[in-house]
Amino acid sequence: MYISLNVDVxxxxxxLLDLPKFKQIMExxxxxxxxxxxxxELGVDRRTVxxxxxxxxxxxTRKKSSKIDEYYEVIAALLSEDSKQVFxxxxxxx
Length: 94
Prior knowledge:
By secondary structure, the protein is mainly α.
């Protein structure tokens, strides 16, 4: 039995998250993936490419505000050039 497959597939890889789908396509077509070339084009290490090809999903990070964000305006006013405060430092020796 002879089967001829002329598959024209245009697949654009924009980020590391596209790699698992790319791996499925390449395995289906029985082709090898050039991890070094992918790493060079994406600007990451080849081991990172391999990790994402194997289905790595990064942990979600929370956007947490800083504890001093609510005091930012006060701090900026105190440290500005217009502030007339003088800071004295005293070193305590034990």
